[in-house]
Amino acid sequence: MQIYWTKINKIIEETPEVKTYMLDCPEDFTWEEGSHTHFAMEGFNAGEKPNRSLVRHMSISTLPYENSIGITTRIREQCSEFKIILRNLEVGSDVALFKTHSNVPLKREDKNVYLLSSGVGLATFRPLVLDYFERADNVNQMHSLNIDSSSNFLFTDIFKSAPDKQFTSHFVDNRKDYYNEVKNLAADKDGLFYVVGSDEFLVQNIEVLHDQGIKPKQIMLDKHEQQLPEFLSFDLSI
C-alpha cells in the first residue's frame, strides 16, 4: 500500500460548519470524478498497528485539472477526536492519503443523471458536475437535488441551474420537500440515480426509488461492490 504524504496549501471556509482543505498533489497521485480516499493525520502509522481514530474515509471534491486535492467536511462544535485535530491544522500541516478509488464515476449511457445528496455529501458530486460541464458526451442532462437542514447550501457557484448546459440544481431544507421531489424525479423510469449521504439516507432513498419502480442497476452508491447487496438486496424480487 502506497501512502502519499502531502501538505495543506489552503483552508476554505465554505459555511460556518464546513471547510475544504486543499492539499498539494503528490507526484504520481491520480484520481477521477467520484473518488474517495483515506485521509490520515500524522502519527496514524507510528505504532505496530494503524491508529484508526486518526484516519477517515473522505470524498475528493476537486478534479485533477484544479491542481489541488480538495477534502470537504463538516466540523461541528461537538465532534470526534479526528475532527478536533483537523480543526486545529493549519496551512503547511502534513497529512497522508492512501487507498484512493472511485465507486461513482460518471456513467455516459445517453440517459438523464440525477444526483441525490444530503449536506456535505454534495462534495462527492462536485467533480461529477465539473466533468459533465467539461464534456457532456452521452449524458442527456443532469439534475442535482440536495437537502441541508442548516440552509447553508454548499458550492452554490457550481450547483446553480444552467439551461444552456442541460443542468438543473435544487436545494431544500426539509425531508418532506426532498422526498416529494425524489418521487417526481423517479418518474423518469430510465434515469440513473446517484445517492450520497449517511447509510440511513441511502436506505430511505432506495426505498422511495424502489417504490417508484427504479431498478437496482439504475442506483449508484458510493460503496464498494461487495457492500452493494446490503443496500440493494431487493434485486432478486425485480
UniProtKB/TrEMBL annotation:
Domain of life of the native organism: Bacteria
Protein name, per record: Dihydropteridine reductase
